[in-house]
Amino acid sequence: MPREKQKRGRRAQEKNKKNEAKRKREDNAEEQAPKRQKSSTAVETEDYIPLDVGNEDAPQANNNNDTPFYGMLDSEEQEYFSRANELLELDQFRDAEERNLFIESVYKEAKGKELKIACSQSCSRLMERLISLSNTRQIRRLFNKFLGHFLHLVQHRFASHCCETLFIHAAPAVTNKISKRDKKKRVDEEDDEAEPELSLADMFLQVIEELDGNWGYLLTERFASHTIRVLLLVLAGEPVDVSSSDSVVASRKKEKLGVTDTESQAEAAIGQKRPVPESFETALKKIMHDMTAGLDDTNLRALSTHPIGNPVLQVLLSLELSHFGKSSAKDPQSITRRLIPDESLEEGSQSAVFLSGLLYDPVGSRLLEAIVRYAPGKLFKNFHKNIIRGRIASLSRNETASYVVVRVLERIGKDDLQTDMELIIPEIPALVERSRLTIPRALIERCIVRGVDTTPLAKALEASYDKDPATRLRQMLKLDKPASEDGQAAGQAAKPENQRVAAPEQFHGSLLAQAMLRVSGPLSELVYSSLLATSTEDLLTIAMNSTTSHVLQQALTLPTSAVQFRRQFVPRFLGHIQELSLDTSGSHVVDALWPATKDIFFVKERIAQELCDHEHTLRDSFIARAVWRNWFMDLYKRRRGEWKQKAKGIESNAGGDTNNEGKPAKSRIDIARARFAERAERSKQIRSAQAAVAAKS
C-alpha cells in the first residue's frame, strides 16, 4: 500500500507545525482583531501632533516603491574613486594646474556614473570634494546631470550632502554670465558631451519646480531638511556658512573638503551676501508660503519643538524678519504673527505662555534665540520686560535658558544691562562652581561695548575663586583634573595636536580669562596677578595646551598689558624658548613674545640669542621654522644692526625713509627704483608747468 510522502527530520516537523499555526491565525484574524491591544508604538505616539496636516493629497516622496535605484559601482570603480579621494585629500600636486587636470580626469571617469557616486556610501565624499574644487563649468555640467532627480536625491542619506555642497558652491556663480571666451573655448574642446543650455539661475528654478508640492513633507524629512535650509539661503542671497557655530545649515559636523588656496577663495565667496535674480525673490516667497500654508497655528507652534523642523523654521523666521524687513511681521499671515499673535506679551497670554515654554526646551530655545536676535524692537522690549527681567537670575542658572539670556544681553541697552547685571551678580558664585561661565563672559563683553562699570562683577568673580592668585588661575583654567579624568587626559595626549578635543570646562574657562584681560581695571588685574604668581612649570603647561595658550598670548599682546607686568613676566620663559618653539601651541606664545618685548629690548636680545643657539634643531622642525621667520633670525645672524632697528620698532633704510613696523626693509634696488620714479614724476610736473606758462604767453 503506498504511503503518504513525508519529509523526515525534526526541522521538517517544526516547519509543518508553524505553517498550520499560521493558517489558523489567518482564518481567525477577523475574530481576534477587536481583542488586539495597543502596541507600544501606538501608546508612545498618542500625543504626537502630525505636521503634514493639509498635505494629505501631496505625493508621499518617501515611498520606498517610488524611490529609484541608480545602480551600484563595481569593485574596480569603487577602488578607483576611493583612491582619487585620497589623492585629493593629500593634495600633493605640484601646482594648481596639475590638480585641475586630475579633477578633469576624474570627471571623465565618472561620466554617466554621477548618480551612482552620489548615492554611494564610500564614494559620496569624493563627489562633495570634487564639487568644492570644481570651476563654474564643471559645476554646471554636474548640476545638469542631477536635474530631474533632486526630489529623490535630497532625501537620500548620502546624496543629500552632495546636493547641499552643490547648492553652496553654485550660489556665487548664479549671476555670472557666460563670456564669449568661454563659449569659444567650449567649441574648440574635443568633447562629445553637450553643454547644458540652462544657466545656473534657471537650474535652481528647475530644482524648485521638481520639489514643488512636497515642501510640507520635506520640511521635516530626516535627510532633506538640511538641503532645504541651504536652498532657502541661496535663493535669498544670504551667506551660507556651514562652519559657523551659530549656523543652522549643516546637519553634521563638516570637515574641510576643499584644499589650499581654492578652499580659501571658495569660502570667501560663500561667506558673503550675494545679489540674486528677481525670480529668486518670487520663488522664495512662494516656498515660504507653501511650507507653512498647510499648517494651522497649533501645528506651526509644534514645529518649534520638532528636532528636524525647528532649524528650517529658524531659517524661515530669520529670512522673514531680516531679508524681507521687520515690517513683514505685521502681516497676519506671517510666521512671526502666527507664532506670536499678541505683541504685548502680558502675563498669562497665549503668546507669553508659548515663549515661556520654549525657554526650557532644548530644541525650542534655539528658535527663541532667533526670535530675540531678529524680532522688531517693540516685540523684543516687551519680551525682555515681561518674560526675562523678572526671572533673569533663575534663567541664568538653567543650562538651556541661559543661552537665550546671552542673546538678550547682546541686544539690550546700557541702562537695561546695568540693571540685569545687578540681578545676575548674586548668582555668579553658583555659576562658577558649576562651570556655567557663558553668562559671566557675556556680561563682560557687553559691558565693554556699552561702557558699563565692571567693578561689581570683578568683586563677584574674585569671591567665586580661591584667594590665592596661583590657585585662582588653576581653578579658572581647570588645570587640577580629578583622578577619574587622568585616563582620558592620557588618551588625549597620545592623539595628534589637531585631533585633541578640549574639555568644555577648560575651554569656557579660557574664554572667560581672555574676556577679563580685555577690561582695564580690577577684572584684568585678577588674571595678571595670577599669572605672576604661577610657577614656571605651570606656565609651560598652560603655554603648551592648545586651549589655555591663548590666555598667555592675549596677556602678552593686549593694550591692557602694562610694561611693569611684561618686565616681570617675559623673563620667566628664558631657558625654555627651544622647548616652546618646537610645540604646536607653545610656538604661538614665542611669536607673541616679539611684540611683547618691543619696549624691553634686552630681553628680546636674550630670546633671539637662545633661538640662535638652537638653530639646527629649530630648522629641522616645521613648526619652529615659522618661529625662526617671525623673529627675523636670518637678519639677526647676518645684519645685526638692521635687526636691532627692527626689534626696537625703528624701520629705516639707506634712503632715510621710515616704514611701519612689521614691513620688510626695502632692498637697494627697490630704493633706486623709488628714486627713479620720483625723479620722473618731478620732471613730468616741471614739463607740464613750462607748457602752461608757454600757453599763457
Automatic annotation (TrEMBL):
The entry's keywords: Repeat, Ribosome biogenesis, rRNA processing
Q: Where would you find this protein in the cell?
A: Nucleus, Nucleolus
* Compositionally biased intervals (Basic residues): 1-10
Q: Where is this region: Disordered?
A: 1-71, 646-668
Q: Which domain of life is it from?
A: Eukaryota
Decide whether keyword Repeat is in the record: yes
Q: Which Pfam families match?
A: PUF_NOP9
Q: What is its main location?
A: nucleus
Q: Which GO terms describe its biological process?
A: endonucleolytic cleavage in 5'-ETS of tricistronic rRNA transcript (SSU-rRNA, 5.8S rRNA, LSU-rRNA); endonucleolytic cleavage in ITS1 to separate SSU-rRNA from 5.8S rRNA and LSU-rRNA from tricistronic rRNA transcript (SSU-rRNA, 5.8S rRNA, LSU-rRNA); endonucleolytic cleavage to generate mature 5'-end of SSU-rRNA from (SSU-rRNA, 5.8S rRNA, LSU-rRNA); ribosomal small subunit export from nucleus
Q: Does the keyword Ribosomal protein apply?
A: no
Role played: RNA-binding nucleolar protein required for pre-rRNA processing. Involved in production of 18S rRNA and assembly of small ribosomal subunit.
Provide the protein name.
Answer: Nucleolar protein 9
Native organism: Rasamsonia emersonii (strain ATCC 16479 / CBS 393.64 / IMI 116815)
